[in-house]
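Exam revision sheet. Question 4 asks you to relate a sequence to its structure. Input first:
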Amino acid sequence: MTARRLVLLRHAKADTPPGTADEDRPLSARGHADAQAAGAWLATRHVPELVFCSPAKRTRQTWHAVAANLPATAAPMVRYERGLYLGGADQLLELVRTVEDGVSSVLVIGHNPSLSQLALELDPEGGLDSDGLRTSGLTVHRVDGPWAECGPQQAPVTATHTARGD
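Answer key, structure tokens:
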């Protein structure tokens, strides 16, 4: 069986404009540059077939900047999932388990602490930074079996990266 890839990406740096609801916070200028850098990194290594993205403004903007840097031939299916904004690591894992086995590469764009907790839970080596993913931080996990059977300590980290734009 071919190994599958699960890429977890924490949204890029967001602004905190006064009077703006958390869900409506936009990316900062640095966040836009970092999200583009994340897209450039993914474009040469891990182009996703399926994207799960939180509906929050900063995650949607992160995805749009990433997508703009993927190859023109890339056409991932994108699903905006409310559970990525409000849910914990267990809910994120349940979402991953719904992926059809024909899909070989999934990108999840979400928030801390849930995303970092999921990354730590999946890695059998537990070698990730205990502080968790920083903004525009990525972890790439290898999933050897069916998506439905993905679970704690069953998806080792094969790469990490913190994208920083110029």
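Marking note for examiners. The chain has one domain: 4-15+23-162.
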